[in-house]
Amino acid sequence: MTTASYSLTTEHAHLLRAALCPPDEALAHWQAWRKIRNLHAASPAPESVKRAFTLLDGSAQQLLPMICRKLEQSDDALMGYLQQAYETTLHENQRRLRVMSTALQALRQANVASLLLGSLPLSLTHYGDMGMRAMDKLSLLIPTEKTDVALAALRQQQLLPSTVGLRHRRQLASLLLTGPDGVGIRLHWHTLPQHTYAGADDPFWADASQLELPTGLPALTLSPTHLLFQTLVVGYQGGRRTALPAMPDSMQLIRTGQIVWDELLDLTERFTFRIPVRRGLMALQTHADLVLPPAVQHRLRQMVPTVAEQRYFDLLSSIPKNPLSQRFQRLRCSRLALRLFHQNRSRESLRTVVWHHLNPRLAWPEGEWSR
């Protein structure tokens, strides 16, 4: 994946258009996808339909509930399967929302401030329909100094981290806490795993937006501008599996008309995320017909990444399959990250980074490659 472009397969392009376009255009793209999968008959065989849906990768399957809502007035032969995808997403989201509500209530009782990140505020606020966007990764940000208090409060709700992760948490930016029903919440004390120094999260706390959960519980979440920034960074700093779902998420946020573009680009340069933000916005121009203001386009052209930035994000985009090669590549990423993100900002030493990434018992935290 280059800095300048992000390509979609023909299949993914049709599914994305079916999720984003007005109903008539959406139906045409959906029918084009059906033809690719040899499902263009008036009544395709159920076995063929199930096989085609099963073969879709996870990122494409996330688009199916959105397509369902776009085509709900049509008489398409596969509407029953789309409706099933929508209802499954709705049911799973309701289950995850109950877990998140329990966690938020526990943190409130422990006097720990929290800020919702990621897919939950997207689903509730910007899609406005709990069945359209899967809350696939529940994430919370807390103040760094409250980490121990928060972990103790959540432990009482049976939300538990791994033993190894807990032991080495001071070298991480987040921990995945898993409840007895298998639903996990990633607890962040830094929003961005590359920026784990004092003050890095101040902009996100300062501009937080109010949100009320369907349970009536008040909460804080990222502002639309900051949520778009997070969506672009998460979606486009790694591989393609995160980039496809980021496209409808980004367009939902942009269509609110609440994006402060200068602020988003200021954050991009402040945190050295020129490459993923440019990748994301250019992909949206190509595949989702995004029209950026001329001033934004001009400023994006002025954002020339350094050689170190290009090398770092290229490494994140291509993870080797061999475990030993993965560990070596993580070490290379960490050395570059120290130069790019921690120079004169952190007491983290290269020796600590080397130990962290060569320690065979400490798994690389999910999200530092692609989140």
TrEMBL record:
UniProt xrefs under InterPro entries: NTP_transf_5 (IPR039498)
Highest taxon listed in the record's lineage: Bacteria
Name of the protein in question: Nucleotidyltransferase family protein
Taxonomic lineage from the root: Bacteria, Pseudomonadati, Bacteroidota, Cytophagia, Cytophagales
